[in-house]
Every structure is written in structure tokens, then in C-alpha cells.
Amino acid sequence: ETNTITFNSAISSCEQAGRWEKALELCGLMVGSKVKFDTITANTTLSVCNDAGEWRRVLQILSGMALHHVNPNTITLNAAISACQKDCDWGSALWHLRSVTWRNVEANVVTSNAAIRACKNNSVWERALGYVGTTVQSGVQTNTVTCNVGMSACDTVGVWE
Q1: CA-to-CA distance for 146 and 66, rounded, in angstroms?
Q2: Within the chain, how many helices (H) and strands (E) appear?
């Protein structure tokens, strides 16, 4: 009997092999077979699509999650913010970052770094630096990536004071 666990294992294999098209095909089969699409299914599929640079697919999967009543978690939002960053859509990246509150999802350093990078990559350096400060103030553990992206944002516009 095929069930959610069987499909999730197959999609995970697609992720390891970098086969995003096959992962999407399996998701379609799940829906067609009326097998429950869960957060693990979504996150694994998001990951394989994100790794392949298929940010449009990531955003489509995120939209589909609501239709299937699948709640996002930290991994989901990290993938969403990363996809927005790759799409040069810093506004949506920040929307997803702010959504952690009403979605009752905990942000982590990956979440913050992806949002900061989205701002930095889109020349919105003031916001990038603002989110560095917000990250520190919120108690989210920072790392060298946080500092490097913040310094890079300053360097991009020649602001060092």
C-alpha cells in the first residue's frame, strides 16, 4: 500500500539525486491518489526545487500547501525566503520573515540570514542592516554568515560608519 511515508521516501531519494522534476511528479501522484500531502512532503520537495534553482516551483508548492491544509514550519519558511531571494523579491522575503509570528513558526539563523541576504542582494542595504539588528535583538543566534552579509551590505554602498 502506498502511503505518505512511501511517497516521502521516494521524494527524499529524488532530493538526494537532484531530480526535482521526478519529485514534482510524485507530488502530483500523491494528490491524484488522495494520499495525504504533509509538511515533510512539502519541505523535501521545496528543498529539491530550491537546490535546482527552481524558485518559481518553490513558490507554487508554498501556494499548494494552503490548499492541502499543510502548515509550514521553519524549514518551509527558510525555503520560501531563499526562493524569494533568488527571485530578487526582497519584499516577499520579508513578508515570509514577518509571517513567522502569525504562523507560530520559530525563526532561526538560516531564516534571518536568508532575509538579510535577500535585502542585500537587492541593494536594500538599510533593511539588510536593520534585520541584522533585529536578529541580534530577538535573541536568534547569529553566525559569521550574518556578520558577513551585513558587512557586505555596507561595502556594497560604501557605508562603514
Answers
A1: 31
A2: 9, 0
Task: Check: pTM over 0.70? Answer yes or no.
Answer: yes
Cell of 3: 502511503
Contact 150, 116 (CB under 8 A): yes
Each residue's pLDDT tens digit, 65-100: 888 888 889 898 888 888 777 766 667 777 776 777
The confidence score (pLDDT) of residue 156 equals 65
As a 3-state breakdown, the chain gives helix, strand, coil percent values, each rounded to 5, of 75, 0, 25
How far apart CA 131 and CA 147 sit, in angstroms, is 11
Model confidence over 115-126: pLDDT tens digits?
777 777 666 667
67 burial level (CB within 10 Å; 0-12, 13-18, 19+): exposed
Q: What single DSSP character describes residue 69?
A: T
Task: Please give the Cα distance from 40 to 72 (Å, whole number).
Answer: 10
Give dist(CA 124, CA 103) in Å, integer. 26
